[in-house]
Design a protein that fits this description.
155 residues, alpha+beta, Aminopeptidase, 4 helices, 28% helix, globular
Length: 155
């Protein structure tokens, strides 16, 4: 697997405390924040690919998914500490994930985002994601999500 570009590194089970703190700083219960148990399971999932900044203040997690007929990547989590937002970390993380997708021969990426998160929706659109549906009460009662997808043509 290709080494991730600076300032990122691949995260693993020893990063549980760091990622749990980042989740707490970025998300609340109504935002779909992961519990420590969920994070532990994801960090140990062989189909998960985690990137984190060296200081642990921005991370992303993708899952390699298959239903027997097709395979795709799911951007499962993207978190940038509030103090770092607007500095391009989210875009850099997603682009670094595209490298992993290419290595895994995954040409489709799916994701979900809070409908009210305009900044994230603009970020995803700038990278080629298309909004494909509204997910009522996805994060909590009264907190809708938006389904996103993009196809990437590898040459």
């Amino acid at each position: 697997m290709t080494r991730p570009p600076a300032p990122f590194r691949i995260a693993g089970p020893s990063d549980l405390d760091t990622l749990a703190a980042l989740e707490a700083a970025c998300f609340g219960a109504r935002d779909g924040a992961f519990t420590r148990r969920q994070l532990r399971a994801l960090l140990n999932n062989p189909n998960a690919y985690w990137l984190v900044t060296r200081d642990g203040r921005a991370m992303a997690c993708w899952l390699k998914v298959s239903n027997g007929r097709a395979r795709w990547a799911r951007l499962y989590s993207l978190a940038v500490h509030p103090a770092l937002r607007g500095q391009g970390f989210g875009k850099k993380l997603i682009k670094a994930g595209f490298v992993w997708m290419r290595e895994q021969k995954l040409a489709v990426c799916r994701a979900e985002v809070k409908a009210s998160n305009r900044a994230a929706r603009r970020l995803y659109a700038s990278l080629g994601f298309v909004e494909s549906g509204l997910l009522r009460d996805y994060y909590a009662k009264g907190v809708d999500g938006v389904r996103l997808a993009m196809s990437i043509a590898w040459r």
